[in-house]
Design brief:
Blueprint (H helix, E strand, L loop, with lengths): L1 E9 L8 E8 L2 E6 L8 E5 L3 E5 L1 E6 L12 H4 L5 E7 L7 H9 L5 E7 L26 H10 L4 E8 L8 H18 L3 E5 L6 H7 L5 E3 L19 H8 L3 E2 L10 H10 L23 H11 L3 H7 L2 H6 L17 E14 L5 E15 L2 E4 L4
Parallel strand pairs: 1-4, 1-5, 6-7, 7-8, 8-9, 9-10, 10-11, 11-12
Antiparallel strand pairs: 1-2, 2-3, 5-13, 13-14, 14-15
Length: 386
């Protein structure tokens, strides 16, 4: 089936301003973008008047190893029908479990799914809030660099990075376990040429130590988390020099909303007062936040729209910037002729909408983003109303 998407406000994902244009989709590709394209007899016309036309959303931080442990959600529940065409699973699988993840979830999924391999051989099997606490770093023997390197070298197609979760109760409250996980992840990244994504929340390791060790292209997720060791909270709401220096040398600061990493009283001063907006917007969606406060990618994007982040930058952070961080920008996150036809049509609704943070605090927004239609490799899906 061929389509022409007419009269939309087209954002290409690069952060450039939108243009009023038509988009022709056929044979699974974006065939043409331009003003007032004539419809062909064999094309289905989609009137996008009043709609945003953007690259399919790229969620840089998800947990979609469904059926393994108590943490992950089904990719179909957070993918195409929510406007997301590409999902990055961040560390749910480790060297002992990744092959099953690839065979049972990644390859059959309608969405594109990639993995940041967990430094622990077992991956993330359990929510850290559920006793008994048996985190992936609790037994230091699971932190095995050679196993992770071997897995990546043997199965490189979908593995795009390395993930480590630095939280005290995931490491049996032992600083040396957290440090072994962190240094192990860095070692794997060095040996394989991949980036590291670091979850650093409620950790016995200081933010100065962790951020100071990250390299250009590494990703610091949960940037605005709610616990007392948040770098902003420890600097009266402003980004400390270590974060500014890290950003200058190319470290990527990701949202990773989750169940505890978006608080209005952290995000507002960091972004609005001090200009420390995220490089990438992601959900960290899993079973314990999909029914609130995260819900989906568009809701997370809407929170930054409410805060005053320009729409072109929100779309950039949710598409091409995320694809660049995951090293998949050659195929995802950009709306351009000749690319795979991953496209989302969003409406920018006006009204009064409740947006809830991880502390249960609500703000009333005057607008929100909602997906209406999604193309995945040229196949059209209608997105249900929220």
């Amino acid at each position: 089936m061929s389509y022409i998407i007419q009269h939309g406000e087209v954002f290409d994902g690069t952060g450039s301003a939108s243009i009023r244009a038509d988009v022709r989709v056929g044979d699974g590709q974006i065939q043409e973008i331009g003003p007032s394209l004539p419809a062909r007899p064999d094309e289905q016309i989609i009137d996008a008047s009043g709609l945003i036309v953007a690259p399919g959303l790229v969620d840089l931080h998800t947990h979609v190893f469904t059926g393994m442990g108590d943490f992950s959600v089904d990719p179909a529940d957070v993918g195409i029908r929510t406007g997301v065409t590409t999902l990055i699973d961040t560390g749910t699988a480790g060297a002992l479990t990744y092959e099953t993840f690839e065979r049972a979830v990644i390859r059959p999924a309608a969405e594109d799914i990639y993995e940041f391999l967990c430094i622990s051989r077992i991956g993330v099997l359990q929510n850290q809030l559920s006793p008994p606490h048996m985190g992936e770093l609790a037994d230091i023997r699971f932190i095995h660099v050679d196993s992770a390197v071997s897995c990546i070298e043997r199965l490189p197609e979908f593995i795009k990075g390395v993930k480590v979760r630095l939280t005290d109760n995931l490491a049996d409250n032992k600083r040396e376990h957290e440090d072994a996980g962190f240094q192990g992840a860095l070692a794997v990244a060095e040996r394989t040429g991949l980036p590291v994504m670091v979850h650093h929340v409620g950790s016995l390791l200081t933010y100065q130590y962790v951020v100071g060790a990250l390299r250009s292209g590494d990703i610091y997720t949960h940037t605005y988390h709610t616990l007392a060791d948040n770098a902003f909270a420890m600097n009266d709401g402003a980004p400390p020099p270590e974060l500014l220096e890290a950003r200058q040398r190319g470290v990527v600061f990701d949202v990773g909303h989750g169940a505890g990493s978006f608080a209005w009283d952290v995000v507002e001063p960091a972004c609005q007062r001090h200009g420390f907006w995220p490089d990438t917007i992601s959900t960290d969606v899993h079973k314990f936040n999909i029914n609130g406060p995260v819900y989906d990618m568009a809701t997370t994007m809407s929170k930054f729209l409410h805060l005053g982040m320009p729409l072109s930058e929100i779309i950039h952070a949710s598409t091409y910037a995320a694809a660049q961080a995951a090293r998949i920008a050659d195929r995802s996150g950009l709306l351009a002729s000749g690319r795979i036809a991953d496209v989302v049509l969003l409406t920018q609704e006006r009204g009064q909408f409740e947006l809830v943070d991880c502390r249960g605090q609500t703000q009333i927004a005057s607008q929100r983003l909602r997906p209406v239609k999604t193309f995945k490799a040229g196949v059209l899906t209608q997105c249900p109303a929220p």
